[in-house]
Write the structure tokens for this entry.
Amino acid sequence: MKKPTAALLLAACPILGIAGSDTPALPSLPGVSSAGCHPAGEKPWTDAGQTPVCRALEVLAQMTYEEKLNFRGALPRLGLYAGPGGRGGQAPPPRTSGITVFPHQHVLASTWDKSLAERVGQAMGEEFSGLGTAFPMININRTWHWGRTADTFGEDPFLTAEMVVPEIGAIQGRHVLSILKHYVANDQEIDRRTVDERIPERALHEIYLYAWQQAVERARVAGVFCAYNAVNGAFSCANKELLDTLRGWGFDGFVFPEPVNDPVAAVKAGTDLLAPNVIDASVKTGKLDASAVDLIAFRLLVPYFRIGVYDVPVAPMGVKVSTPEHRKIAEEVAEQGAVLLKNKDSVLPLTNIRKLAIIGDDAGKNASVQMTSSNVPIENPSVPVDAITARAGTAVKVNYLAGTAGLGALPEMQADFTAAFYASAEPSGAAVVTRSDAAVDLAKFPPPVQLVPAGGRGRGVAAPRVPWSARWTAILTPSVAGRYRFSLTGSGTAQLYLDGKPVATVVKSDIAITVTGGVDLPAGKPVEIKLEYMPQGRGSNLRLGMQPPDPETVAALQKTAKEADVAVVFAGERAGESMDRWSLTLPGDLDNVIETVAGANPRTVVVLNTAGAVAMPWIDKVAAVIWAGHPGAFDGSSIAALLFGDANPSGKLVMTFPVNERQGPATKPDEYPGDGKIVNFDEGLFVGYRWYDAKNQTPLFPFGHGLSYTTFRYSDLKLERGPDGQTTVRAKITNNGAREGAEVVQLYVGHPAAAGEPPKQLKGFEKVRLKPGESKTVSMALNRSTLSVWDESAHGWKIVPGAYTVSVGSSSRDIRLKGSFTLR
């Protein structure tokens, strides 16, 4: 019989005392010291003068095995209350109301304003103290394909770290746990549960782990979510090397799992908070030692004490937490995060106009203000066309025209479809069932019962009897010439072809999404429609929609645009979790709408509500472009302020905009999306602008780019070496224009050639606000840790001696000042 461990005895008898004493023995955990703890007295863990470790150990000594097993933050028996109503810091329900819907992180990042990130964190902390836990995401935007680009801070690890550290600090300063997503390299949605990402060691540390290390060491983040994907041979939640690296930085919090393949391996690697029944069964069968339960509870307790969750009154549950101050901050982020990409002949800001055309479904109530997976209701949203009309006033006539069916599902396409169903994962070989369907709609015309039991087509119901797939074919004879739009709504994998050419694509989506595509067709010429489908998981869900061209709509677009002094076209996209992008092209007919409007009025302004980069075949035909991202509740008021000059654009791109899909890194299939099993990060260190610089590629818009309604002059570069080896870079910035504005001064460093680094990398930035004619000197420090590179042979950081170049400018491609210094 196995000898009981001390931890197991404590669990069985939580008030066991030390020989003749009422003071419970503190658990002995690997690497944890109880020195200086004072466990005597009633509820000693309530003494805020003790360290979080001591308080956690004192609570742990009093907990039963069942309490440890099920512990999620709250334990009323011991006076521990956490989260709204004592709910243990759980996240709010998906449809929570009464909160401020802030812009997504990509918009916050585009402000390049560290103080604003801190203010957002303070506001979020105040709101989440009444509603739950905050979940920032800091994965790197490795490729424009990634569907969750809007959730993160862009393509650069230094910018990500400098923005998220103050945000986390402010959130946790309000006694709210911040749990970072997803550790590590969760940079694609397709096959995210199965792929093994092969990342070179140096790139892993310099690009993908850098912001995580900063969040641990500088912000002391409470917890992390491990990612679905594997990294270099081991799934993240069971990757002991990665989790040991996390602990090696001084991380004292908990690791929250996404679904894991091997719970025992995950716990042994350092993942916490798996399902209690799974942990309990593993302990009882001897696969896990009972001490693992102690360690999991301890890791959860420490950040609760360190952040002071137990030391503040519990907020009431279900309160409305949004305030006027929070809403003002959200609006400020939307204004400062919008990026003015182009402004020919200073068409913006709008002045001396009498007629204004607002065009696009995205300007109305269907505006793309948040990711599809956010699922947060916006109370009284600021609608662009309403806000612009109100700001324009009675002196300006505003005409609004949607001009498009938008991004939602289109009307059901009806045709004489031949439907073939296959008892295989792909539609090949002999069909099991062939039939005629009036439409492609699995809700109306479900799969045959031979493949899926009756009533078994919904998610979470009876499993299919066999793997299956389907193909629908039909002939479409266009009655009029023009652009035909198609929509696919569903989960799984679906590919729509017209005469063999792909038109709309859904790939391995585990939630139902809608994608659109379009193609120009001549009248009277038959085309073959083919739609292939492979369901994902246990559910099946697919519907095909179509919208024929409407000559009257095109004529209305041309007339409305031509009659206006300026036409503003709004274009968006739907992106989010489980929704990687397969083309840089704007969805549906949006490019055609922009081309039509610009053809009728050269003073056309395009406002983009997209997650990231899009192709712009019309860029030379329009006067101005604003990238507004997903700006949250204040989409309308923020864009109205920018269009009319009440706010001066100051946002800068946090991702490179390629000209086409062939530009930039990770363009080969084995680099993205991989084969479902392996993805090769062959670009190594050369992510984002690093690749464009190294390969001498000219992007559509470079990293760090963003215009203003004023101009700035850079001068007086000075480099000062300190006794501690730190180099201080100073530059004078002057507002040469007639408007007050803000400039983001960017510092890039080039390492000695022997370092093998990219040509230049962001190592400092400051946002400076200047009145007309005003000058300020900006200072940015370069220390040895900032300049260190990863040494794969020594598995650690090192300084490479030699000459370092310093480039200061307005973007990664707009360098105004240059200098150099030497490290010996």
